[in-house]
């Protein structure tokens, strides 16, 4: 049986992707009744064709959480319209000065040491702090945010089944009650004394003349905690990995800093932070001569699609000047990631700071890095680095 979820494969899944994509781009795992899509066109279709592929999925352990990403129109359209108000281009751009301040606050204590764990000391807390401020939650609650986010992301283990999946579901059920109680208290405060923050806007929002329920607000809250932090954390970590593994590209970026936006897009393609998305077939679907029956759980493997040589020239080459670069790291269609612009902004600020302030940057360990706990993401849980103390 193909094991996509071993540590060795998760560190470098791309040779396996190539092997399966070239021989069976539509892959059936009969022991789990799960189907997987590996080629660019197949994955892209699963992401945008919501008439054929539903986002309301049933993983092996049961129904998926009641979140925006696991909903279809018309409910998805209404809920997305509400959350989009907080992610307008103007509102995202206005965050840049504060993101820069937070980046400096995290980096300053590390500079004299000449070493740090990039994941724990910088790339994990930075997006958590940004989301906390957007929501209007005190920064003292950041450790709780990080713990909750990790538990939420561990729900990805439901795709593999077994004891680990059951443990993830039980742990989430317990933490969900903790989050519900916390959120109910905060929302009560916002109703009494509104603030200029995302939680206040969610409390005041209406769908068809009705305010959102606590369960709907809790769904938004969980999604922001997980997707709003994990993607950016992995994007920053993966960018440093890519640049250190390709010193010619790092030298070029240092010589031409204007290439940074293009470099970020190439990191998103080359080491996609989210490796797969979940769908369920609404009807029988034929792809590449295979028929996926209706009602089947489908993994659309974005990390493979973004290395498809039929779409990308020299697909396994990391090239910060790649153009065009039509990757689908943030999804495609009606479920395109709402936080994509924010993630790109945070990554740009972070990499500008890291490359400017950390001279002689290198990995501080030759040990294989440990993948993050969530099965559907790609990136290290720890990333020790060294640099010249300053």
Automatic annotation (TrEMBL):
This is Cytochrome P450. The keyword Ion transport does not apply. Keywords: Heme, Iron, Metal-binding, Monooxygenase, Oxidoreductase. It holds the Pfam family p450. The lineage of its organism: Bacteria, Pseudomonadati, Myxococcota, Myxococcia, Myxococcales. Gene3D superfamilies: Cytochrome P450. It comes from Archangium lansingense. Transmembrane segments: none annotated. It comes from the Bacteria. Belongs to the cytochrome P450 family. InterPro entries: Cyt_P450, Cyt_P450_B, Cyt_P450_CS, Cyt_P450_sf.
């Amino acid at each position: 049986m193909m094991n996509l979820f071993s540590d060795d494969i998760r560190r470098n899944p791309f040779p396996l992707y190539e092997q399966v994509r070239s021989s069976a781009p539509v892959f059936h795992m009969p022991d789990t009744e799960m189907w997987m899509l590996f080629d660019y066109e197949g994955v892209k279709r699963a992401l945008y064709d919501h008439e054929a592929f539903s986002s309301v999925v049933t993983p092996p352990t049961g129904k998926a959480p009641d979140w925006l990403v696991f909903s279809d129109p018309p409910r998805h359209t209404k809920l997305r319209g509400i959350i989009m108000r907080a992610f307008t281009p103007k509102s995202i751009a206005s965050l840049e000065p504060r993101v820069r301040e937070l980046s400096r606050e995290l980096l300053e204590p590390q500079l004299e040491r000449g070493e740090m764990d990039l994941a724990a000391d910088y790339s994990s807390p930075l997006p958590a702090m940004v989301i906390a401020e957007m929501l209007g939650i005190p920064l003292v609650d950041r450790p709780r945010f990080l713990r909750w986010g990790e538990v939420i992301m561990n729900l990805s283990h439901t795709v593999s089944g077994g004891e680990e999946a059951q443990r993830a579901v039980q742990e989430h059920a317990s933490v969900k009650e903790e989050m519900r109680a916390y959120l109910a208290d905060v929302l009560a405060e916002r109703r009494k004394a509104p603030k200029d923050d995302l939680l206040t806007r969610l409390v005041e929002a209406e769908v068809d003349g009705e305010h959102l329920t606590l369960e709907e607000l809790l769904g938004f809250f969980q999604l922001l905690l997980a997707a709003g932090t994990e993607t950016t954390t992995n994007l920053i970590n993966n960018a440093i990995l890519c640049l250190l593994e390709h010193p010619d590209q790092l030298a070029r970026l240092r010589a031409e800093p204007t290439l940074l936006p293009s470099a970020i897009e190439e990191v998103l393609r080359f080491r996609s932070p989210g490796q797969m998305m979940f769908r369920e077939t609404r009807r029988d679907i034929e792809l590449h001569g295979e028929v996926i029956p209706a009602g089947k759980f489908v993994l659309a493997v974005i990390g493979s699609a973004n290395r498809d040589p039929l779409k990308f020239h020299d697909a396994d080459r990391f090239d910060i000047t790649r153009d065009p670069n039509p990757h689908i790291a943030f999804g495609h269609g009606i479920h395109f990631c709402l936080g994509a612009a924010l993630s790109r902004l945070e990554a740009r600020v972070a990499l500008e700071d890291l490359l400017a302030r950390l001279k002689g940057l290198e990995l501080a360990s030759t040990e294989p890095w440990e993948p993050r706990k969530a099965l559907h993401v790609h990136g290290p849980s720890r990333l020790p680095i060294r640099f010249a103390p300053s």
